[in-house]
Design goal:
ten-stranded mixed beta sheet; 13 helices; about 40% helix
Amino acid sequence: MMRKSLLAAGMGAALTFTGHASAQTIEFVAGQLGGGWYTMSSGMAKMMQDKNPGLTVKVVPGGGTANPSKIQQGQSQLGMGLDIFAKAARDGTGIYNGRKHDKVVMIGQSFSDNYVHFLKAANAPYGFEDVFKQKNVKIGVTKAGSSDEMTYRFVMEEYGLSYDKQRANGWKIVQGDYNELASAYKDGQVDYVFLVLGIPGAAVIDMGTGRKGELMQWPKPLSETLMKKYGYSPATFPKTTYPAFQTADVQAILMATTLMASSDLSEDVAYKVTKTLCEGTAELPKIHASMNVFKCETAVKVQPVPVHPGAMKYYKEKGFSS
């Protein structure tokens, strides 16, 4: 009788060990709280967990320029990124100069398009180009490490400015996550806001509920310069995107969202992640409207960084890649 009990206990222990061995937890670094990326990542993580028992996906806040480094350092295994920064990180160029992120690969691309927004309050007197010539401007920008903030730096450079020069001219620069910037705008702490979001951005919609304003048109020379130097693409905000901020189409620039992965992520998990997202494509716009642009058939047509072997296995099986 005792031997049977010991055998049963041993089998129970073996089953427990097997269960733990097959379970996996991975970290998915998203964007800032209140932003589109955080919403997208949370929704995709739930899909991954629901379709793959034993897989736990922990979503944490991040930013477009910081996320490649979190993947390189082994902190996160999946991460939202942008085509231009993922490539720069992999190559060790630009803001990653001399630091090649050789573990940064991708699951797929164009999960959403990320539009660069520059908004001004209805009572703010200066337009896009004029504001950079003024003193005592109150502006909201996201935290360092985000694609928004880095794009803002690129714009400042084109106008011969820096944070130090702006502050010397009496500028008040408020930095925070999207929720904090929305509150600062509605409360009148800032009159201008510079951010990057998939459209329609929840934070921008929130801003419009408390204070009207204008989504500003990008000057063509500035757009063309940033596209040539850094790889941004031309964009158009349809006139119905933000009724509180526009009455016509607005020209701007954008970046494409790349779902990055670590080359250390197992081939099996990368395959399952890819399969889940490709077979759940119809569900993605329900997570965030901007994800309606994703198509599995073209997810690796453009490859700013190499495709993870597990993901590529799925694409080849479906005939989406040779």
